[in-house]
Design brief:
By secondary structure, this protein is mainly beta. It has one helix and eleven strands. Strands 1-2-3-7-8-9-10-11 form an eight-stranded antiparallel β-barrel. β8 and β9 form a beta hairpin. The longest helix is centred in the N-terminal third of the chain and has 16 residues.
Length: 192
Amino acid sequence: MRKKAIFLAACMAIALCSNAQSSSNGGYKGFIDVGYSIGVGDYEFGRFEVSTSQGYQFNPYIFLGVGAGLHFMSSYETKGMDIPLDVRDSQVDIPVFANIRCNFSKKKVSPFVDVKGGTYVTNNGGLYVNASAGCRFAINEKQAVSFSVGYASEKLEFESFDRFLSHTSMDYTRRPTKYDTEAITVKVGFEF
């Protein structure tokens, strides 16, 4: 918990120390993204996501900042089994992350890549990484709308089947276990 508090304090300090004036040459920049993740791999469950990043735009090409999000995850249960091996209740997970974004041109329409990496601060933590590519459409010098598709890799906690309590009963126990999950992300963003 102490590491998480230090990380959050560092994130706030970076955001507060950023220049409050935004321009295409450098200064404070903020992003808001809304999207949906389509689960792939062993754990195919979707989730709705909202996130924000705040930081410093060094030049028209490079942004570096920190952020946080809300991931609304539906319940999950291993399919096709009388006793599911893994279950997860519907819940909200909150990732905090470092964010780097690279624009490939200064034009009104520009492709970009975006990488977020951090940890969840809820539900016993877990790794959060999201890499995406998309296109940015400038509204004016300070604002733009973007569309992106990406890949997310996360370490999330599930309740896993542990053991039967006896040889004559179907009663069983579960234990918390962290598993790697993957998703394809589709997002719409606004920068200011």
